[in-house]
User: Fold these one by one.
Assistant:
Number 1:
Amino acid sequence: MGVRTPVRMNDSAITCSDRGCGDWRRPDYGYYKRAYRGRTPEPAPYCCQNVAPMLLETHQLTKDYGRFRALDSLTLQIGKGEIFGLLGPNGSGKSTTIRLLLGFLRATSGRASIAGFDCWSQSVHVRRNVAYLPGELRLYENMSGRQLLTFLSRLHDQPLNGEAERLARRFDLDLRRPIASLSSGMKRKLALIQVLLPQVPLVILDEPTNTLDPVMRDELLDQLLAAKASGKTVLFSSHVLQEVEKVCDRIGVLSRGKLVHLQAMSELRRIRQARVQFGGDTLPEPPTHLEGVTVQARTRQAITFLCDGDLDPLLGWLAQQRVADLRIEPVGLTAVYQRYHGANP
């Protein structure tokens, strides 16, 4: 994807993380120096054209309601062409984050930008670059589906085309029907079509699969992958870990308004858990020399290993032991999520 970890900046050394680049040009350096007064900001901006720019950035973004802090110092970067999942239970700060990004709320402190525009002071420009699906739908029920899509397409200055009919067929929706006559699931499908149609760089969806049946959930995830393939960036919040695992490049976990975990899904998909039950009266001593293999847990008769990479070293060692049972499965997001929120997503 061309996204690199940004370098950090201080007053004495400003270098590029790209080994082939000696450039340190930073258009926003004046802002960072003023805002942080010489302290190292985290994350620092990208230093040169060899590194893909971020489409969405927040820096210490905070929102208070009186004494209650709904969002606490969120610093996040999302690159072009990336699907990013925002996870957390109700009240963790997901919807507050989205509303701040769209300029619906004013931050108590910090800063956010989309496509180079400040999310509060330039919110009109921001919304021209975003297609948004809220968690709670409010549709014009005096229109038909096609009338609504035509109306919203004109707001983006993009006339309705055959893509609307294609998406309607994919979601099994009759655009001629009045919106007032549609079920909640059908209304959700119509809302998804209107958010997928505009040619904008960023799509933001708040709990997009609510009220969808399993077949339509899979169809939506396929359409999000197609949006990514066309160059769009997707940010969506969800409670359903399986759908996040299927499509996301990275995820962030929010807890009580704080970003407590960032995870690249490519790394997580590579890690597998192997639970081995041994025969005999005593457990063998687990190996310490196997690359990428660590012991996660052990009981009187079983050892659970985490394997990062090739399974062959572990399987070779197990071939020399008395194994009664072996179960290997991906670690998945569940273990990561439960670290912060227990068993309830």
Note: Residues 61 and 110 are 4 Å apart (CA to CA).
Number 2:
Amino acid sequence: MSVIIKPTMQVKICDNSYRTKWDDFIINNSADFGLLQSWEWGIFQEVLGRHIFRVVLEDNSKIMALALVIKQPLKFGKSYFYLPRGPIVVNNELMADQQIETLEFLFNEIKQIAQQEKAIFLRMDPAWRDNDDLKNILKDSGFIFSGQVQPKSTLILDLTKSEGDILKNMKSKTRYNIKVAEKNGVQIDHGKKYFNDFWRLMEKTSDRNEITSYSKNYYKKLLEVLGESKKAELVVAKFENKVITANIVIKIGDWQVYLYGSSDYEYRSKMAPYLLQWQTIITAKEAGCKYYDFWGVDAEKWPGVTRFKIGFDETRELTNYIGAWDEVYSSLWYNIYNFFKTKKS
């Protein structure tokens, strides 16, 4: 499928020949680490049984914008489209008129696909920094603010600083807890062989914090798909040879990301989560990463986890994103969807 905008510009659905070009564009232009728009994230979604579309806008064969679109099924044969941390636009100069025009071209193509797939709306949750001017542009373009899907705020460490400076910016309690873990003999290791330990701890963590985790298959497939290219890794902390903390971390481009974490509350006095984070940060820095993303903080929704993360740099200003926005294709079905969603909640 292809729509010609002008002689040098076209919007189309990509095939596998675009894989390298697609990921190179994301690394060079994404406002965050770009994982949720990456080619492999699309493969992961397909492995989970979801239908995806990779839509790209080019000018003279140069990518200007792209979007990984995930089809989310609804009842009555309907669906909606979801763009996690997308779309991504060249240079991320979103306030420029040319970039807004670029997005309009892209969204027009997505809308045509949506009509064929019976999608009633498009939900995007881009990695664009929160600002009122951009919100007004989205409102003027017909988008409706729909809250939060991906984390609204996050803490991103600057790994170009020295280890000494990174330690200096931590809360004193965080530095102390790292030393406590070391004195307790906590050991760090990594590898897929610890997956069952991770899942055991994830079930405990979900029950303890009264949150819903993904399925065991979700994490297993994530590590299989993203682990093949060494983007995803399972890291653990052990006490007396027992795994008591386990995290899934992502390395992509200049970024290391703390994506999922779990721990055993019975061993909380060993302070293993602090040492595991610190060793992961050091490893990322040694590998040449420039940023360490803690992937979500929210003092109201996750107070304990947020305190833990912010402790690694109490001087750092949080990065705030613009949230999720909907472009409605069918007002009737969109209202029905929101009615049942509100009733269910």
Note: The two ends are 39 Å apart (CA to CA).
Number 3:
Amino acid sequence: MLVPYNRLYKTHGLVHTARTAELTYYFTGSSGVPNISEGTVVMMVDGIQACFCDSSNMILEPRKDWAKKIFENDPQQKEIYTQICFQHHPNMFRIWISILKQHFNQSAGVHILQMESGCEWDENTGEAAAVLQYAYNGEDFLKLDFKTVAWIALTPEADIIKQRRDANRDSIKFAKTILTQFCPEWLKKYVEGGKRFLQRTVPPSVSLLQKTPSSPVSCHTTGFYPDKAVMFWRKDGEEIHEGVDHREILPNHDETFQMSVDLNVSSVRPEDWRKYECVFQLSGVEDIVTKLNEAVIRTNSEENIRKAETPSGMMIAIITAVVVVVFAVVGFAVHKKKKGERFKAAEQIL
């Protein structure tokens, strides 16, 4: 079984603010994975899957009506995605996986090459930011710093590739142009086309969960949209950090989101419980404050936890098995003389 993408790839994505929009592409190339496409491309707009592409089965499928309409009204953009999905990336992934397997002295087995690329646009200021990062076999590998316009090796093994990528200045300039100039324009088009859906605000349901009396108390929210939410514990009106564990925001099957923040209560005296509150904040929604109250905590029942959470855990596994062995690396190239002109040509594409 494939691992959900949020576990497979440790993201270092863009920082969200209340009035930002985000367009992200997740590319995947794989080898040795039976019954799974060797190449997928997923386009996400504000955390919602707008388009899916499967190169092995020749599928290019808008997943939202508004995305479908944009493709119908802009045949050129659809043609670009078609070339990327069915021609450029499948060929590139095969080459890069072969190169990296030799670089790491690997042979048979499952190997996954991933890339995340995209942009964020602030609707108020008009400012844009970009992200481009790579992973190999589930480990962060390489990332482009758009400020210094240079690659960052995220593992010691990636340093030689970083040096080679830094030397390809044309490739870096091309990536920067695409992600800082063209990507925001594409994003604006999708935001406009899907604004009725994308700009809605949905408040969450909130529960306090605890597996056993000695376990942390988890403040769990689910069913909210968009994902640009903040949640924290506070004591006597002041946010606290000690004994607090923030969980990542996860998608639900109905295209809303969920998140949890745990509070270690082992050292909290019973008479002090009333001093603690869980606070959920989302733009357009009044702050939701939930007091730490033993009477409302759901305890010692996995069934209750499953009911409190929408069944996103299973859905994530199902969705990601098809969609998200996400993020594909296009820019990895290791100099191997014996590979000759075929690899040299591939290196020039990105």
Note: The radius of gyration is 22 Å.
